[in-house]
């Protein structure tokens, strides 16, 4: 058990240390590491993301806590969460201490300019990977013939329209999406005929 707790800590420490751009940029690395260690399947990771997004707080911390809990209980949650938070906490203390000295540095500005496109790429990678798993879990041709694909697509398009066109509050979108998912899931389980 102690070996598992340390493995959780160091894995999430590495994720927190080598990922820039916030929680969404951590998702691809987190996904790769969790799958590599066998702590979850691809489908379970999608569920982790859904739960992490639906609860208050940063997604990376929520996912680390959730994965730690599923892997090793409360202690797993503690070690995984501590691991993902500690690098950022340490780095921000150092940056705050040195900020005035390096604020106008050409090198620091260049690093920040270089990191922005990389962060966008990491977030896009997470979107494509998760989207592929959500929409095309059984393969493209099989998915196109299943009602769950079309229902998921409908919920996604509706959420995007409400978010961008109507400026609907994110909490309302989460509640609406959950209600539609439950309703569609219930309707899919009803016997035909």
What report would you give on this structure?
This protein is mainly alpha-helical and 193 residues long. The chain has a domain of 105 residues. It contains eight helices and no strands. α1 runs antiparallel to α2, α1 crosses α4 and α2 packs across α5. It is globular, with a radius of gyration of 20 Å. It starts with a helix and ends with a helix. The mean pLDDT is 84.
pLDDT averaged over residues: 84
Helix-strand pattern = HHHHHHHH
Question: In angstroms, what separates the terminal alpha carbons?
Answer: 52 Å
Number of strands: 0
Low-confidence stretches: none
Shape: globular
* SS-based class: mainly alpha
Rounded Rg: 20 Å
Estimate the strand proportion.
under 5%
DSSP summary: helix tally: 8
- How would a textbook summarize the main sheet? none
Binned, the helix content reads: over 70%
């Amino acid at each position: 058990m102690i070996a598992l707790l340390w493995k959780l800590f160091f894995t999430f420490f590495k994720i927190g240390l080598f990922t820039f751009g916030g929680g969404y940029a951590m998702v691809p690395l987190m996904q790769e590491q969790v799958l590599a260690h066998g702590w979850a399947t691809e489908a379970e990771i999608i569920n982790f993301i859904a739960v992490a997004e639906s609860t208050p707080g940063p997604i990376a911390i929520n996912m680390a806590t959730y994965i730690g809990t599923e892997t090793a209980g409360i202690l797993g949650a503690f070690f995984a969460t501590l691991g993902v938070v500690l690098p950022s906490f340490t780095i921000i203390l150092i940056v705050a201490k040195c900020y005035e000295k390096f604020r106008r540095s050409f090198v620091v500005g260049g690093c920040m300019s270089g990191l922005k496109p990389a962060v966008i790429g990491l977030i896009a990678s997470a979107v494509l990977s998760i989207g592929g798993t959500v929409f095309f879990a059984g393969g493209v041709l099989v998915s196109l013939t299943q009602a769950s694909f079309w229902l998921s697509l409908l919920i996604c398009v509706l959420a995007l329209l409400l978010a961008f066109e109507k400026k609907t509050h994110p909490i309302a979108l989460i509640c609406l999406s959950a209600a539609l998912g439950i309703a569609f899931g219930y309707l899919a389980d009803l016997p035909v005929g």
